[in-house]
UniProtKB/TrEMBL annotation:
Organism of provenance: Altericroceibacterium indicum
Pfam families: Hydrolase
Keyword Hydrolase carried by entry: yes
UniProt keyword list: Hydrolase
Stored Gene3D superfamilies: HAD superfamily/HAD-like (3.40.50.1000)
Lineage: Bacteria, Pseudomonadati, Pseudomonadota, Alphaproteobacteria, Sphingomonadales
Name this polypeptide is given: HAD-IA family hydrolase
Residue spans crossing the bilayer: none
InterPro entries with a match to the protein in the record: HAD-like_sf, HAD-SF_hydro_IA, HAD_sf
One MF annotation (Gene Ontology) recorded for this entry: hydrolase activity
Amino acid sequence: MKAPIKAVVFDVGKVLIRWDMRLLFAKLIRDPAELDWFLANVVTEEWHFEHDAGRELAEMVAEKKLQFPDHAHIIEAYATRFLETIPGHIPGTHELVERLAARDVPLYALTNFAVPFWAEFRPTEPIFDHFRDIVVSGQEKMAKPDPAIYALSEERFGYPGHELLFIDDNPANIKAARECGWNAHHFHDAKSLEADLKAYGLLD
């Protein structure tokens, strides 16, 4: 038996939902080599992360269109067709949320997500009705793995880090959480997560 956990904090992308920008842009760029170049040089995950951290979408897109005018219409799709980068759920994790909720385990989320994209996405997922609070990086203008967002989450959720179990797919975010005193599960699949939840006594 591991130390008692009083609440569980989920990441969203690649833990509860699938997310892959390639799925959207493959519809707009048919040549695989050009698609690889576009995702490595134009709409990159690093650039997307700026939006997650609170940078304004209109400013980002306008700047990127000036840099790559030949791809302006494709860059625009980033702003207007974001839900097409989310093809569905991660197998098994929604069922684990439902089981935790049925046991009245307090559930929270801490996600790197841009404000306009979150506003568009959140209503599509009733699973978040089980969550008591969700810290969204774009709203706070800080993002994982910044220790400040973990401190904010402790304040919002009302638990010290040692009473929380944090679930995330990103090693840097897991490392930061542990350095802040949180318990953390580096997510790979629902089966291993279920085993850890049982080890903490959160599931039968």
